[in-house]
Amino acid sequence: MSSLTSTTSNANASLSMDLRSLDSLRSSAAKGGKDTAGLKEAAKQLESLFMGELLKSMRATTMSTGMLDNQATEMGNNMLDTQLSGKMSGLPGGLGEMILKQLERQVGKVASDTKGANNTGLNLPSGRLGGLTGAIDTSGITAAGSGTSAIDDKKLTPAQRFVRDHAEAAEAAEKATGIPSEHILGQAALESGWGKKEPKMPDGSSSHNLFGIKAGANWTGKVAEVTTTEYIGGVARKVTAKFRAYDSDEEAFKDHAKLLSQSPRYSQTVAQADTAKGFAQGLQKAGYATDPAYADKLTKVINTTLRLQRSVT
What is the pTM assigned to this prediction? Predict the structure, then answer.
């Protein structure tokens, strides 16, 4: 069993203990009291588990380095993820404060319930992180009067910032194509390495090509010529290719939407884009990328993107 599995098991066991300890809050809530320290600790542990799962998902979408990967490097990565999830938890203005507010509201509801009837209990997951997003309602938590996330920008990870910054363009693309915004954002994230690896212009500036769209014979706009990896006969090779270049990221989203919605080549992709897997497999079948594992990678990144959307909106 890997160290991450052991750590997750220990965290889940600890969470279960904290959830059981919340039962004692019912009686104190009924008497008008609140165990503030207990609530804060439970919120912190729920946030830590959420961050751990997020890091695990992001790690799964990262391409391995190959021959140097082994059990030792995996253990090191797992230990690092555990440390990072701890450091990312309990920060001012973070998810933990949102969780705490809901716990306090739920305890308040318990107090009112116990005055007239049997207590129905706190609506929390029973140790499995998959139920966290349903139990903790973060919708509508925004900075007063600004319409932006209440979470401090400095506290966001690069991936969270990428999703937040491109949310509006992805939603516009969804309206134009019918493809869910998280699918579009996920493909942009995969193709550009969360905005860090888009093709560069000769002067080093960004081409804003977040989707890795090549510049074919019919392209009359700007071009970025770079070295990229292509799979030829299933073998990865370095080749020089020309990519489309735009004046902004928004232009890239619009051109991508136009490509998928107007090209007969991708008509089937759009038709089956109701699921992440269907969308990813449709793109691979249509030849969007030469990587034989493209569909699997894209499906994982889309699922990660969906979680990130929930954490920053």
Answer: 0.54
| Active-site option among 23, 69, 230, 247 | 230
CA distance 172 to 179: 10
164 token code pair: 């937040």
Q: pLDDT digits over 21-60, tens only?
A: 445 544 444 444 455 666 677 777 777 777 777 776 666 6
Q: Is 232 exposed, middle or buried (0-12, 13-18, 19+ CB in 10 A)?
A: exposed
Q: Give the mean pLDDT of 74-97.
A: 70
Query: Any catalytic annotation for residue 251?
Result: no
Annotation marks residue 230 as catalytic: yes
Q: Which of 81, 182, 191, 255 is catalytic?
A: 255
